[in-house]
Amino acid sequence: MTDFATWIATQKDRTEAALGRLLPRSDEAPATLHAAIRHSMFAGGKRLRPILLLAACEACGGDTEKALPAACAVECIHTYSLIHDDLPCMDDDDFRRGHPTCHKVYGEAIAVLAGDALQPLAFELLLQSGGAELVKELAVAAGSKFLIAGQVLDLEGEERQISFDELRTIHEGKTAALLTCCFRLGGLIADASPQSMEALTTFGYNLGLAFQVIDDILDCTQSSEKLGKTAGKDAASGKSTYVSILSLEKARDEAARLTNEAHAAIAPLGQSASRLREIADHLLARDY
């Protein structure tokens, strides 16, 4: 088995190449729109969500080549959410992944439309990996009950101090749902058993929440240069985070607890889930 760093770099490269093939060219009409899409899509990023999908597919014995379009689909949904999240009417961020955000380069209207265009493109790509079951999974995770619901609750909580349970509900939708969906899509493409699907679902839920806790920790412990986005913004605006509610030390404990729960969930998968275990430990230890 290849070492983890080599494996993850390979999956990222595969995703980058597939995105390059599958997305409209920047000179394809309407060129401004497609250039804006590519600006945001290829501004860097870890390609975490596609890698999670490919890892789940691999762990369940599936064909990761077949899963590549689906991996690109979840990256389209993620990138659309970032484009819209950065808009002045939302988080009003000037930088993402160390580059000017889409609306700073192309204007707000084109940024909105670039995000809009990435959503149907995601489902077009998803159908290259499978059928209606995959479409339903992503549509639910990205819809009004999860991803968008989390953003709404986040906005509504900006003017007050929210509870720990409210914060968890926000990030169950805003962060954990799409990460969980990646694992489920990978499992479905691999025709995983119901028991494996249950393990992947619980793993994804806990890993998704742990990922957000670490994000909140990094926001107050790392520089903007390291993160590739504005650091310390949550604290400056008085926004509730895992750190503000729990304290920095207890937030670290919570991230470790959730990661341990993720590990426990995939214990029944045995050695086939070794990459998933490495991913969980890698995300817990990340510094950007």
Please characterize this protein's 3D structure.
It is a single chain. This protein is mainly α. The chain has one domain (4-285): Farnesyl Diphosphate Synthase (Orthogonal Bundle). It contains 15 helices and two strands. It has helices at residues 4-22, 31-41, 48-59, 64-85, 102-106, 108-126, 132-141, 147-156, 164-189, 194-221, 224-227, 233-237, 242-246, 248-265, 274-285; strands spanning 95-96, 99-100. It has a two-stranded antiparallel ribbon with strand order 1-2. Strand 1 and strand 2 form a beta hairpin. The longest helix has 28 residues, at 194-221. The radius of gyration is 18 Å and the shape is globular.
Break the fold down into its secondary structure elements and pairings.
Blueprint: H1 4-22, H2 31-41, H3 48-59, H4 64-85, E1 95-96, E2 99-100, H5 102-106, H6 108-126, H7 132-141, H8 147-156, H9 164-189, H10 194-221, H11 224-227, H12 233-237, H13 242-246, H14 248-265, H15 274-285
Antiparallel strand pairs: 1-2
Helix pairs in contact: 1-3, 1-4, 2-6, 3-4, 3-9, 3-15, 4-6, 4-9, 7-9, 8-9, 9-10, 10-14, 14-15
Q: Which features does this protein show?
A:
single chain; 288 residues; two-stranded antiparallel sheet; 2 strands; 1% strand; Farnesyl Diphosphate Synthase; 15 helices; globular; 72% helix
Give a brief description:
The chain is mainly alpha-helical and 288 residues long. 72% of the residues lie in helices and 1% in strands.
Q: Provide the CATH architecture.
A: Orthogonal Bundle
Report, as a whole number of angstroms, the end-to-end distance. 27 Å
- Poorly predicted runs of 5 or more residues: none
Question: Total helix count?
Answer: 15
The CATH homologous superfamily corresponds to Farnesyl Diphosphate Synthase
Q: Name the CATH class.
A: Mainly Alpha
Overall geometric form: globular
In spatial order, strands of the major sheet run: 1-2
Task: Give me the CATH fold name.
Answer: Farnesyl Diphosphate Synthase
